[in-house]
Structure formats: structure tokens, C-alpha cells
Amino acid sequence: MALNLYGAEVNPRTGKILVAAQLAHVDLNFIPTPMYGSDAEYLAKNPLGKVPALETENGPLFESNAILRYIARLKPESGLYGQNVFQQAQVDTWLDFLQNEIEPIVLPLAMQIFGRIPVDEESFKLNHQLFIEKLTIIDNAIKKTNAYLVNDQVTIADLAVASFVLFTFLLFVDEKQRKQFPSASKWYISISELPAWKSVFGRTRLCKVAFTLPKAQKQEKQDKQEKQDKQEKQEQKPKQEQKPKAEQKPKAEQKPKEEKPKAQPKQVEEDDDGEKQEKKKNPLDLLPPSLFNIDDYKRQYFLDKDIKNQINVLFQQIDAQGWSLWEIIYNKAENEGKMLLITNNMKRGFLQRMDPHFRKYAFGVHGVYGEEPDLQIRGAWLWRGVEIPQEILDHPSYEYHTFNRIDLANEEQKQKWANYWVFQEEDQVTNGLRTRDVEYYR
Question: For a FRET experiment, which of 36, 77, 193, 305 has its CA 20 to 30 Å from that of 12?
Fold first, then answer.
């Protein structure tokens, strides 16, 4: 009887088993299964109704680490469970370490970033710090072997731990922080570049800048506003305090008050501050004035129920020298786009991590299209300027997207762009693909 593995796609607990099976040359029949199965047939395989579960000729197995050990023991010559009893105990140590020390920390961190659970910034910071402590332990262990967690060969310990480190290096342990853990970083990249790993988890992806929590982005905006308000009060305060001082001085000393051009250094400082603020101005604000007003257009768009008409209005009104239209296409990895729920989360994540200030300069629709297991994430955008702006260049996932500027003289390109806006309803067909879920960026 062939081994049947029931599991969710793009899932660390299922993924590590699939990688181990390839490395051990164990034939597995993978059956994609929802995260929580409820039918009686599946409950007979895993009474918890969770994934993964393995169906063998001797009966079913559940719990991912138990299945992982079983796969490694089927082919002891592979060395995946270590070369001797002591090494097997070391492998078990790391599997327990993962289950007890890493998973309880990483899962809530990732779930908050993906928007699957409510954001709690205090617990996020605490768990982040706790994970850094665990990463230090991993880094020190790799330094001793100069290769992998147990010895100079990949074991299931490496596969299991790396399957969760994947999310941390992708989401919140950024480039600057990874440099503090050179051994762990080198180890993870060596695991993620294995052909078996790439066939399951896709290409190696590392965040340059940590993803921020959706709520944190709003708080950042509020903090900036509060800081500006405080600065304004501080600038006004010295001016108010000068009056009583002048009143206390003799009348003969009131003349210098009229000579306050000498107080111009303060103005110069203020001017200097003003210049600094000007340097920090968004480059989009420094573009030549445009007659097209995006705020007016947004209001007009949402008041008119005829979207097709509004897109035609846009084509007539747009200032082609000051604004541009773009198609954005996400270049998914091999294992991505297989499940609608996960692909929707990726699409929402892209929008949530966009600089919130960019809304002032942009308007877009961004959606999921196609069929499982080949879903696509695409969007049609309008933004200030005729180049890709800094807000897009700074996006954590910029390098994984293709940006096609629409030629306003090309009717075919314009029609393709318009279709994203016109066919937003679920199950409509947009440029040959079924519309699944669409959101506005406004």
C-alpha cells in the first residue's frame, strides 16, 4: 500500500514531511486537505481533525513530528535521523525545542502579520524578543558543527526547525537583524536552497525590512502627527515667554525690542528647519502642477454606479504628463497560488504593507484571479508621476512583482487595464481569468 499524506499546502508541518520524503526517497501520495477536516472518514485518520495525517498499511499516524520520524526511520541509510543513538537523541532534542520553544512564539507573530488574529503590539514585541533569544541558541549550535544542527549532514531536525525559521526570516527578522546571526543565516539559506526544499516551499525569500503590523502603521501616522504638534507648541512657547521678560526690563531697554532683526538667527534656524522639512517632502509633491485632482476623481467614481463610464471619464481627464496607469503582477513562487484563502491573505498583506501616505497619490484595484491551484494576484493602479514611486520601491515585496506601465495611446492596453475595474464581481471574467476577490486601494 502506498503512503498517503493528507496535509495543507504551504504549511510548515506538512512541508517538512514532504521534503524529508524526497531526501529519503520515500514515495508519498500527497492529498491536499483543508486545515481542519470534519468528515467521519478523515476523523478516522486523525481524531483531532487536523493536518497532517499519514495513512500507512499498518494504520494511520498523526502529529507531524511523529510522521517525520517515521519517514526518516523507513530509510535509516539516509542519515535523516542521525548516524547513531546519540545523534538520534540530539534530533529529538531539536524537535522538542521546536515544538515547545519556537512554534508557540512564531505562530502568533505570523498570524498577527497576516491579519488572522487581532493585533497586540505588546505581545508581538515580547514574542519577537523571545524568538531572537531562541535564534541565538540556534546560531551557537551551528557554530559548533559549522554545518547543521546535529552533525555535518542534514537531518529532520534541520528540516523541522527551518520550516518555522522560514516565516521569521520572511516576515520580521530583517536583513540588519540577520547579520547578527551569521551562522544561523548561512544554515537557513543552505537548507532553503536544497532542490527538495524549493520544490515544496519555493525559492528562498528574505525580507530586507521587517513587515509592520496593520495597526502599527496607523499608530506610526498618529505618532508623527503628535510629534509635529509638539514641535509647533515648542516653537510658539519661546515667543510667548519673551513678553514678560520684556515687561520686567526698564523702559529704556525696550528699544532693543524694535531691533529684533538681531533675533533673526532664530528665524534662520527656523528657516533651516523649514528647509530640512522641505527636503523631506515627498518627491511627488515636487512634480509640476497637474490639473487632474485624484481626490475629486475618487469622489466622482464612488458616486457613479456606472464604473465603465467612470473609467472612460478617467481616460478623458487624466494628465498623462503628471499621472500614469500601471498593471501590477505578483510573480508567485512554485508553491504559491494553490489555495484561495492563503492567496487572499497574501493580497491583503501587500495592501496593508503599502505606505499609508501613498493613498494621497494613488488609486487602485488589487485582486485574486484564476482557479486553484493556479491563482494569480494582480492589480490596476493609477498614481502620481510617470515612474515607479519610492513608496512602491520601498515595499517589502517590491522585487517579487512586475510593473507594466499602460500606454495611453494603446487601446488594447487601456482595455486590459479597464477590465480590472469593470469586472470586480466574483465569478466575472477579467482578462481571461475568473475574478475571485478584489479590494480597493484608496
Answer: 77
